[in-house]
Amino acid sequence: METGRCYGCKREFTFDPAEVETFLVDPETGLPPGLTVLASLRPATPEAVARSVDLPVCPDCIERAKRFQF
Ligand SMILES: [Zn+2]
Q1: Which superkingdom is the protein from (predicted)?
Q2: Distance 57 CA to ligand 1 centre (A)
Q3: Which of 18, 32, 52, 63 has the fewest CB atoms in 10 Å of its CB?
Q4: What is the pLDDT of residues 6-60, one digit of tens each?
């Protein structure tokens, strides 16, 4: 098991790296590549995708995301 900070709520939680849901985030904007701060979609540049990292998301946030069809 590993401990990390949830991308959604910033809470520390323990997860199994093989099972955890992750979220691809561009560290430059703190958002998924292709998503602007206004939450409008734009084409993701290859550069943005290349520098993006997978961040773990806790089960609470996954539940919330499903409910709102995030
Ligand atoms: Zn969370």
Answers
A1: Bacteria
A2: 5
A3: 18
A4: 999 999 999 999 999 998 999 988 888 987 777 777 888 999 999 999 999 999 9
Distance 38 CA to ligand 1 centre (A): 21
Residue that is written with structure tokens 């998503």 in the block: 35
- Centroid of ligand 1 to alpha carbon of 13 (angstroms): 8
Exposure class string for 41-64: b at 16+ Cβ within 10 A, else e: eeeeeeebeeebeebbbbeebbee
Task: Report the alpha-carbon distance of residue 23 to residue 31 in Å, rounded.
Answer: 9
Indicate the pTM of the whole model.
0.71
Do 25 and 7 contact (CB within 8 A), yes or no? yes
Q: How far is the CA of 47 from the centre of ligand 1 (A)?
A: 27
